[in-house]
Design goal:
- The chain contains 5 helices and no strands.
- It is mainly α.
- It has one domain: lambda repressor-like DNA-binding domains (434 Repressor (Amino-terminal Domain)), CATH 1.10.260.
- Helix 2 crosses helix 4.
- The longest helix has 21 residues.
Amino acid sequence: MAALLREVIGEVLRRARTSQGRTLREVSDSARVSLGYLSEVERGRKEASSELLGAICGALDVPLSRVLSDAGHEMAGQEHAAATRAPAGTANIDVSTKVVIPQVVSMAVA
């Protein structure tokens, strides 16, 4: 199963915090977010609002755009890995497949 966006964002935030050698308490105090809630966000259990993400990113001195970009790259990598290891017999759409959808013809009723 593919990871949820909130899980990947949490991983990116945790990596940023730990790479700075900071504790949850330090970042939660700086971001004015409860320690428990920040922990839940990092573990991917809570879906953080954009305001909350902005506060956490501000406390970490990491641009929100960087967190979202990193999360997007990680998700793309996970999706690619999942697609390349799809089991035999799994229906994959061939990019060369063409579908023709006939035009709808309306008929006037008198």
